[in-house]
Structure formats: C-alpha cells, structure tokens
What does this fold into?
Amino acid sequence: MKDFAATRRPRALRPAMAVIAGLLAGCAAHLPQLQRRELLTTQVGSFAVEYSDPDEGVIPRIAQAVESAGPAIGRWGQLSSPVRIEVLPSHESLEKAVDRQGYDWLRAWARYDEMFVQSPRAWGFIGPTQAELNELLTHELTHCMMYQQSSDRHSWLAKGFPLWFREGMASYTSGQGYRWPTLEELARFLETHPKEDPIRDPEPLYQGESDIVYSAAHHAFSYLVLRQGESGVIQILHAMQPGPSFGEAFRQVTGIGPDDFTTQFKQYVEERRFRSAGYRSALRMVAAGLSRSGGRSLPSIAR
Ligand SMILES: [Zn+2]
It folds into this structure.
C-alpha cells in the first residue's frame, strides 16, 4: 500500500502507481535475515512478527498497531489462520520480498496470511507516527481478513475481487476516507474525464491519479455498506467460501451483478444524489460505523 506518511496533508498524496495488494503471484523471496520472532494474540487472531535484530526497538510499535487494528477489522469476523508479519529492515528488502522494483512509495503488502511491512525505522528521516502505523496495519490486515473470510489459502487469488471492493473495504475499515477526494470531487472528475473510469477500469489512472482510484474505491464500498449494511458485505464474503467467485457471490446476496452495482454507483455520484438529506444522514451513519444492517429507508439496491 501507499506510503501514507509521505505527506501529512489529507488528499495530497503524491501521485503513485497503486499496486493491487494481494494479487502478487509466486512466492516471496526467502528472507533469512529475519531471525527473530514474536507471537502476538489479539481479539481477532494470532500473529507471528518476524524481524531482524536492528528492528527490535520498533516491535512494540508494530505490536501496538496490530492490537489497535483488532476492533476495526473484527467487524468482519475472526482471522482463521495466523498471520505472519515480516518487518523488513529496508525498502530494498521489502521490494525484494514482494518482487516489485521501483515502487519507492510502497510500505507494506498483504496476502492471505502474510503481511510485509517496511520497518518504521527505515521510512525516512521522519518516520510514521503511531496513528499512521495503526492505520497502515489496519488497512493491510483488512486485506488478510477479506481473503480469509471468503477463501482458503489455495483459492484466494482466483476469486476475482475487483479493486474497488478490495481497496474500498481496506480504506473504509481503516477510516481513510479523509485522505481521498470527496464525492463532490469524484463527481467533478467523472464530468471532466468522460473517458476515464476509476471504478471499473482503474489501471490507466494508477500512475498519475491514484488518489481518485482510492476515492472511487472508498466511496463505492461505502455506498455498498449504505445499501446492504456491513452484514451484507459479510454475507458476500461467506457466500464465496463454498466456491463461488466474487461476482457470483455478489449477485447471490444483492440480486445484481457487480457491473450493475458500479453503474448504479456512478449514477448516484454523477447525479449527486449524495447531496440529498436522506443520503447525507445515511452516509453519516456509514461513516460512524452505524450501518451494520443496511439503509432500510433507502430504495433497494436491486432494481
Ligand atoms: Zn490496500
């Protein structure tokens, strides 16, 4: 995920190519220098933090961030498999571990039951604050939670999660909406870039306008919560467990396919329906985490 500490101003992240966390194929390079290991258990699962000697001093900060992620990610369930967290001593070792070169902004990467994080010691002259570290780990561990709630170690890569759902869920869970362009700004972007589609075709925008991709993902996921509740998201994830892909499970639970959903979301943004009093109060509920069972007063998602 992006280096959210690179700038401390909301919505002023430097342009960066966003990497689809979790879609990395192949195995991480073996990292023999991580000879230290600490086990942690929190309310959502257990974790093995692996690190090298020079990082001993940052482990309490990592442990605190793992602990603080618990309540936020716990809304989706429990981690069924322990997560191995590798604290990598340098940016180069992170790139090597995830087999990506030239991603200066990359700070962490999550897969089914593994998370790689660049040691806060090596983030630059001014390292992350504890709040930034908490946010980063909550975001990454949400990816692990999403995969574990929906798949097993062998099937998670093939489920076909769209970026808007995957990154939107992580951004929503870690409360990162304040970092991204607002719904109004997203509406303006759609108006002025009629050929771009940050929701269904985000790839061409990663390099120069990743903020709008994260904005679209965050707001589309929030819109899903607004319509289906967090319980609807959990139903989608669980519906995938016996075998269905994301698209099949999404249709089973919501009555429409993901493409119809993103079309509806786009209309909602373009027509600025989010400005209406009904949506405004529903969105406040969603932002406050009070929409566990969906916006009953709003029209059904299926139509
Ligand atoms: Zn992510």
Q: What stands out?
A: Confidence is low (pLDDT under 50) at residues 3-29, 294-303. Residues 255 and 302 are 6 Å apart (CA to CA). The pocket of zinc ion is lined by residues 1, 21, 139, 143, 167, 170 (CB under 6 Å). The chain has nine helices and five strands.
